[in-house]
Design a protein that fits this description.
Elements (H helix, E strand, L loop, with lengths): L3 H5 L7 H18 L11 H5 L3 H23 L6 H25 L20 H4 L11 H21 L5 H33 L4 H10 L7 H15 L1 H9 L1 H18 L6 H22 L5 H4 L5 H6 L1 H23 L3 H38 L11
Helix pairs in contact: 2-4, 2-16, 4-7, 4-10, 4-13, 5-16, 5-17, 8-9, 8-13, 10-11, 10-13, 12-13, 16-17
Length: 389
C-alpha cells in the first residue's frame, strides 16, 4: 500500500471531474427550484422535474471528500484532530449561512413563501426533523444542510470507532445494515404516514412525505454512505479504486445506466418502490459517476469545462441564496418580462449568479482565508480544497 501522502494528495487538489459534477449538482438543484417562479419551460421540464437529485449528488461528493479527509490521517498512523476538523467545518459553513438566515428572518420580501418555520430550527439545524407546516416553506432547502451538519458531527466518531478494530467485513456488514435498515424504515414510514394521508385526500400527503421520508437524516443516509464507501476504498484499498478508474468509461456508462433506471423508478417520486429502493439505487449510480470523475481514463475525469471551477467554488453560496434571489427577480421583473421567456430566464440566471458571487466574495471567501491563515499558523489537520459545503 503506498504511503498515505502520495495516495491522498490527489484528492486535496481541485479535480476537473469533481468540479464538473459539483457544477452539475448546483445547476440541477436550481433548475428544480425554478418551479417557485413558474418553471423554465417545456424544453427543460425533464431536468427541472428530477433536479432534486442534485442534492443526492452533493451527498455522495460530500461523503467521499469528507471521508477521505477524516480517514487520511488515521490511515497514515496518525490521529484525528477533531477540534481542527470542526473548526474548518464551522468556518466553511456558518458565516454565509448566518448571513442568508438573517435575510430570511429580517427581510420578509426575501422569502420565497410568506410562512417560515420557527427561527430556532435553522441555527440548531433541526429544521429537517421538525418541519410540520406546509405553509412554512421559506428557506426549506436548508434541510439538506441539516443532514450534512449531522454527518459532520457524527462521522468522525464513527470512523474512530470503526478503526479501533479495522475490518473490511465489519465495514461491509455495517454498510449493508444501514442500507437495508433505511429501506425498512422508509417502507414503514410510507405505510404509516404517507399512504393514509394519500387515502384521506386531505392535502397533507405532501407534508407527510417531506416530514417523515424525504427530509429526516435517518431516511437519507444512502448518498453519504455511498461517498464514504468510495472514500474507504480510496484510503485503504487504493489499488481497487485505481482498477475502477482504469475502466473509467465502463464505470461511467454503468453509472449513467443506473441513473436512468433510478429516474424511471422515480417517475412516481413518492411511490412505494421509489421510496424504498430508489434512494439506494440512485446513490449507487452517483457513486459510480463520482468514481469515474475522481481520476483515471474516463473523459469525465479529464475534461476541463470553462467556468465549472468557478461555479463549483461558489456553489455553496448559490445554494443558500438562490431561492431568495429567484423571488426578488419575480417581484421586480416577472410581470414586465412574462411575454419574453428567454429574457426572463436570463434575468433569473444572471441575478442568481450575481447573488451567489456576492455572497461568496464578501462573506464566504474572506472567512475561508481567515481559516486558512489560522491553519498556517497552528498547522492543524490538513484538508481537501474541494470539500463540498
Amino acid at each position: 500500500m503506498p504511503h498515505a501522502d502520495s495516495t491522498y494528495r490527489h484528492y486535496a487538489m481541485r479535480l476537473p471531474g469533481l468540479d464538473l459534477l459539483r457544477s452539475v449538482a448546483i445547476v440541477w438543484v436550481m433548475l428544480f427550484h425554478s418551479y417557485l417562479v413558474g418553471g423554465v419551460g417545456d424544453h427543460l421540464a425533464g431536468a427541472e422535474r428530477y433536479g432534486w437529485m442534485g442534492v443526492d449528488l452533493f451527498f455522495v461528493l460530500s461523503g467521499f471528500l469528507i471521508g477521505v479527509q477524516v480517514l487520511r490521517p488515521l490511515a497514515a498512523g496518525g490521529s484525528l484532530d477533531l477540534l481542527a476538523f470542526y473548526r474548518r467545518r464551522a468556518f466553511r459553513i456558518l458565516p454565509a449561512f448566518f448571513v442568508v438566515f438573517a435575510l430570511y428572518v429580517l427581510w420578509p420580501a426575501w422569502r420565497e413563501t410568506p410562512g417560515m418555520q420557527p427561527w430556532w430550527q435553522f441555527p440548531t439545524f433541526t429544521f429537517n426533523l421538525l418541519y410540520d407546516q406546509p405553509d412554512n416553506y421559506a428557506f426549506s432547502h436548508v434541510w439538506s444542510l441539516c443532514v450534512e451538519e449531522h454527518f459532520y458531527l457524527l462521522f468522525p466518531f464513527a470512523a474512530l470507532s470503526m478503526l479501533r478494530r479495522p475490518s473490511a467485513r465489519r465495514f461491509g456488514m455495517l454498510c449493508g445494515l444501514i442500507v437495508v435498515g433505511g429501506m425498512v424504515l422508509r417502507a414503514g414510514l410510507w405505510l404509516h404516514y404517507y399512504q393514509p394521508a394519500q387515502a384521506r385526500d386531505d392535502g397533507t400527503s405532501g407534508l407527510m412525505f417531506l416530514r417523515y421520508i424525504y427530509y429526516p437524516t435517518w431516511s437519507r443516509l444512502d448518498g453519504l454512505l455511498a461517498g464514504v464507501a468510495l472514500a474507504v476504498c480510496a484510503v485503504f484499498r487504493p489499488a481497487w479504486l485505481a482498477r475502477v478508474q482504469r475502466h473509467g468509461h465502463l464505470v461511467l456508462l454503468l453509472g449513467l445506466a443506473l441513473l436512468a433506471a433510478a429516474i424511471a423508478l422515480f417517475t412516481q417520486r413518492a411511490g412505494f418502490a421509489a421510496t424504498v429502493v430508489g434512494y439506494p439505487l440512485l446513490s449507487l449510480a452517483l457513486m459510480a459517476i463520482v468514481a469515474a470523475a475522481s481520476g483515471g481514463s474516463s473523459w469525465l475525469a479529464r475534461v476541463s469545462v470553462p467556468g465549472t471551477g468557478w461555479l463549483a467554488g461558489v456553489s455553496y453560496s448559490l445554494y443558500l441564496c438562490h431561492k431568495g434571489v429567484f423571488h426578488l427577480v419575480k417581484l421586480a421583473w416577472a410581470e414586465r418580462l412574462q411575454q419574453h421567456g428567454l429574457m426572463l430566464f436570463a434575468a433569473y440566471a444572471l441575478a442568481t449568479l450575481a447573488g451567489g458571487a456576492l455572497l461568496h466574495g464578501l462573506v464566504e471567501r474572506p472567512f475561508l482565508r481567515w481559516r486558512d491563515l489560522g491553519r498556517q499558523r497552528s498547522a492543524p489537520l490538513a484538508a481537501g480544497a474541494n470539500v463540498p459545503g
